[in-house]
UniProtKB/TrEMBL annotation:
<feature type="signal peptide">
    <location>
        <begin position="1"/>
        <end position="23"/>
    </location>
</feature>
<feature type="domain" description="Thioredoxin">
    <location>
        <begin position="33"/>
        <end position="172"/>
    </location>
</feature>
<dbReference type="GO" id="GO:0016491">
    <property type="term" value="F:oxidoreductase activity"/>
</dbReference>
<dbReference type="Pfam" id="PF08534">
    <property type="entry name" value="Redoxin"/>
</dbReference>
<keyword id="KW-0732">Signal</keyword>
<dbReference type="InterPro" id="IPR013766">
    <property type="entry name" value="Thioredoxin_domain"/>
</dbReference>
<dbReference type="InterPro" id="IPR050553">
    <property type="entry name" value="Thioredoxin_ResA/DsbE_sf"/>
</dbReference>
<keyword id="KW-0413">Isomerase</keyword>
<dbReference type="GO" id="GO:0016853">
    <property type="term" value="F:isomerase activity"/>
</dbReference>
<protein>
    <submittedName>
        <fullName>Thiol-disulfide isomerase/thioredoxin</fullName>
    </submittedName>
</protein>
<dbReference type="InterPro" id="IPR036249">
    <property type="entry name" value="Thioredoxin-like_sf"/>
</dbReference>
<dbReference type="InterPro" id="IPR013740">
    <property type="entry name" value="Redoxin"/>
</dbReference>
Length: 198
């Protein structure tokens, strides 16, 4: 019993000390972009459900591009997936949703194939992503980033703001009105530690 506990303790310590070094070994090539800023013309690789597996973000000519950050383990993402599909079909070329995940293609494609078995998805999917996650860091999903044609970030929202009314408002006058912006909070940190930093 003692041997089992010591093995578990050693394994936990190894994971604890190896995680930061792994995170540091990944070079950060993109700085986060805030609302009002413009993103660089990122080359998207590992693109599925699209005419090519590699493309630039500027190749999408829609008036509104919505990056949809999700994961196969995110229940809320799966619940909101049909709504996203409906909106993509409704708006056609005016709005372009792009699903983005940092999960590997080998994990994501079988999952999506099963999820959309009766009715295939109309939305391109970027797998194995690091660039867009660096540009738009977030904690909670689904996480939606709204971009205009020029690559300017106009909003970051939850699924609640993903409505026909909000999309129509943007398409008619390039304005999102007083749409509530998503603010991620890290629940692992205590409120006092967050306040001390301010």
């Amino acid at each position: 019993m003692k041997k089992t506990i010591s093995i578990i303790a050693m394994a936990t310590l190894c994971l604890f000390f190896s995680a930061p070094s792994h995170a540091q070994s990944i070079a950060s090539t993109f700085k986060p972009v805030k609302i009002g800023g413009r993103i660089p013309d990122v080359t998207l690789t590992n693109v599925c459900n699209y005419e090519t597996t590699k493309t630039n973000l500027s190749d999408f000519k829609a008036k509104l591009i919505i990056l949809y950050f999700w994961a196969t383990s995110c229940t809320s993402c799966l619940v909101n997936s049909p709504k996203t599909e409906e909106l993509q079909k409704q708006y056609g070329g005016e709005v372009q949703f792009i699903k983005v995940t940092n999960q590997p293609r080998t994990e994501v494609l079988p999952f999506l194939k099963e999820l959309y078995k009766p009715d295939p998805s109309a939305i391109p999917v970027v797998t194995d992503d690091s660039a867009l996650h660096q540009l738009f860091p977030h904690i909670h999903m689904p996480h939606y980033v709204w971009l205009d044609q020029t690559g300017k970030v106009v909003a970051t929202t939850t699924a609640e703001q993903l409505t026909v009314e909000n999309i129509d408002r943007f398409l008619s006058n390039d304005n999102i009105g007083n749409m509530r912006m998503k603010v991620d909070t890290d629940n692992t940190k205590s409120l006092t530690s967050v306040l001390k930093k301010k």
